[in-house]
Write a structure and sequence with these properties.
This protein is an alpha/beta fold and 351 residues long. It has 2 domains: 204 residues, FAD/NAD(P)-binding domain (3-Layer(bba) Sandwich), CATH 3.50.50; 121 residues, FAD/NAD(P)-binding domain (3-Layer(bba) Sandwich), CATH 3.50.50.60. The protein is globular, with a radius of gyration of 22 Å.
């Protein structure tokens, strides 16, 4: 069994920032990532633009800017993260999945890590979980959800050309998918259980969607939910403001179905380590001053602290930078690590 002082799990933006902080502080650590760095961002559709301004999502003090001085795209940011990893020469073990973790009697932790069919075991004094909050789609549990023309991810927009596409959902991802599908020549309809699209949608998307609906270029089935998907149609049921079904069902023709109904956090590592989880969202309990969980020696940072953000995002990249500084201060005992440890409050959180 190999050993380390700190095992850091997850290599999204905050995980990478945490790695830089550990390296700068001279802490012995090993960094595991189940897929590739920034893997959640990597499954965004090509050229998806951040809601956040570049300076808010820059990590480790490395400026992030774009050639157009605009908000960064998926591609811009993945390139930026690669450059940060290169700049600090971070030793990240990608494609290494921590699939079992437990606390030992002496207060340390044992991790079982799989990689390309092999397996290794590690002992760590402390564990930092920067695993994010969107590991898998929220399944609707309806017939036909597993058909090959149905996806919970928005793919390359070109693939929807001249297709009848039904988008299900009413938040940023669904709105952007509907607009981009229409622009590439798809016949687009959108089903949303709500009546009015929230003003929390990216400010440049909401008016465009409403204009396309008003012009009849996107068909809007408001206050509806899908109850069955067939190879050629989706059966929709009307719902009232409380979400209860009312009225007669009807069918909408669809060559492709995109279920943008949100994603959930996988709480397995929390549960294995014994972290207390609270409420329906399974929010891990943490000490806000240190980011240590209910289990001594287990720290949580980034959007992972939010559990499953079911009813709207509350924890962002830009509000999570402080987590890394709190953890470093607690692990190293260096009170001068950073004097400003307040969580930033934005009038309009952007992510």
């Amino acid at each position: 069994m190999q050993s380390t002082s700190v095992a850091l799990i997850g290599a999204g933006p905050i995980g990478i920032e945490m790695a830089v902080s550990l390296k700068r502080a001279g802490v012995d650590y090993v960094h595991f990532e189940a897929k590739q760095i920034g893997s959640t961002i990597a499954w965004w559709a090509p050229q998806t633009r951040f809601f956040s301004s570049p300076e808010r999502i820059a990590v480790a003090g490395v400026p992030f800017s774009t050639p157009t001085q605009d908000k960064g795209t998926r591609e811009d940011y993945l390139n930026y993260l690669r450059n940060v990893v290169e700049q600090f020469d971070l030793p990240i073990c990608t494609d290494h999945r921590v699939d079992d973790a437990k606390r030992l009697d002496d207060g340390s932790f044992e991790l079982s890590v799989s990689h390309r069919g092999g397996r290794s075991r590690w002992k760590a004094d402390k564990v930092i979980l920067a695993i994010g909050d969107m590991h898998e789609p929220k399944m609707l549990g309806i017939p036909g959800e597993d058909l090959p023309h149905v996806s919970h991810y928005f793919e390359e927009p070109h693939s929807y050309f001249r297709q009848k596409v039904l988008i299900v959902g009413g938040r940023n991802s669904a709105v952007e998918a509907a607009i981009r599908c229409q622009r590439v020549g798809a016949d687009v309809a959108i089903s949303y259980r709500g009546g009015v699209f929230t003003k929390k949608i990216k400010y440049w998307l909401r008016p465009e969607l409403l204009a396309l609906i008003d012009a009849g270029k996107i068909v809007y089935h408001k206050r509806t939910i899908p109850i069955e998907i067939t190879p050629n149609e989706v059966v929709l049921a009307p719902v009232d403001e409380s979400g209860e079904r009312r009225g007669e069902t009807f069918s909408v023709a669809a060559d492709r179905v995109v279920l943008m109904t949100g994603y959930r956090q996988d709480p397995t590592l929390f549960e294995q380590l014994g972290v207390e989880l609270e409420g329906e969202r399974l929010v891990p309990r943490v000490d806000e001053e240190t980011m240590q969980s209910s289990v001594p020696g287990v720290y949580i940072c980034g959007t992972a602290v939010a559990g499953t953000q079911a009813s709207g995002v509350e924890v962002y990249i830009e509000t999570s930078h402080v987590h890394t500084r709190r953890i470093i201060r607690d692990i190293t005992g260096d009170e001068s690590a950073d004097a400003d440890l307040e969580t930033p409050v934005y009038a309009l959180p952007e992510s």
